Amino acid sequence: MEFLFGPVPSRRLGLSLGVNIIPYKTCTYNCVYCEAGKTTKLTVKRESFFEPADIEREFTENVDKMGRIDVVTFSGGGEPTLNKDLGRFIRFVKDKGFKVAVLTNGSLMFMEDVREDLMSADVVIPSLDAVLESSFIKVNRPHGSLKIERIIDGLVDFCKDFKGEVWLEVLLVRSLNDSKDDLKALSDAIERIKPSKVQVGTVDRPPAESWVEKLSDKEMMDVYVYLSAHTSVEVELIGGFNKENDAFKDDVERAILKLINIRPCSKDELKSIFSLDESRLNEILEKFEKEGRVYRYTYGNKQFIAGNVSLVK
């Protein structure tokens, strides 16, 4: 098959049947971390790269042979929004009764026709690795016409009108987009965009550039806590880092203290953020109380926990 791949198991999407509608490594970015390698055609021009009927025919002839499919995902070795037939393909697959997801770097969502094409999808997963222009250039190495502020404006406009789920994906590279200034700018942008949730990861597969370095588990947890404290949307860690791993379990007390020293949290929030059951969370909080490191108070009939008395309302 030329255009279909999978279905492949995805932690986020279930069994995903991929549809690749872009020639290999045709993209608006040349990201230093890309697992597919370096971009060979850097472009922002939308085209019909293939005969649409050929893709639709391959899908129709093979989809019933694929077994269970939870979602059909437009992704692959390039940027899918470069294909100007994307809207047609999404509607075609939806008419067949399948849920549709689109994995995009988000770079062209300032274009009205791109936003319109994506409106029929169920889930759109755009990337936003850096908000500071200098970091954006270093990590994503974009086409020269692309400006990060315009890209963010496009994401804001899309999220205002889109009826499905938007999962904003952030990939961090050591010393390129992980500074305090980067995280502050990122959290501010997330508050403007208001996606359904934010998914944060680091380098987990062989990157396009051999010198690229991933963040440690401890550094990723610090990022996770910072974004959880400074944004109003759900934050997830993805990729090689797992909240269930030993490093997270061993350091969860430090992470809770760090978070509640930044903002008060309810017990339900702490259980959700740190994947803890009631008994384990109570055990941790009781320990902190004996040590005089937490403060409980009630606001609006709801109990909150703070690590700094100055945060107590």
Quick summary of this structure?
This protein has 313 residues and is of the alpha/beta class. It has helices at residues 52-62, 86-95, 112-118, 133-140, 148-161, 180-193, 217-230, 246-260, 267-274, 278-290, and strands at residues 4-10, 14-20, 26-27, 41-42, 71-75, 100-104, 123-126, 165-172, 197-202, 234-237, 295-299, 302-306.
Structural overview:
By secondary structure, the chain is of the alpha/beta class. It contains 10 helices and 12 strands. It has an 8-stranded mixed β-sheet. Helix 7 runs parallel beside helix 8. The chain starts with a strand and ends in a 7-residue tail after the last strand. About 2% of the residues have low confidence.
**Strand tally:** 12
Radius of gyration: 21 Å
Strand ordering within the main sheet? 1-2-5-6-7-8-9-10
**SSE order:** EEEEHEHEHEHHEHEHEHHHEE
SSE-based structural type: alpha/beta
What labels would you give this structure?
two-stranded parallel ribbon; 313 residues; 8-stranded mixed beta sheet; alpha/beta
Topology, element by element:
Elements: E1 4-10, E2 14-20, E3 26-27, E4 41-42, H1 52-62, E5 71-75, H2 86-95, E6 100-104, H3 112-118, E7 123-126, H4 133-140, H5 148-161, E8 165-172, H6 180-193, E9 197-202, H7 217-230, E10 234-237, H8 246-260, H9 267-274, H10 278-290, E11 295-299, E12 302-306
Parallel strand pairs: 2-5, 3-4, 5-6, 6-7, 7-8, 8-9, 9-10
Antiparallel strand pairs: 1-2, 11-12
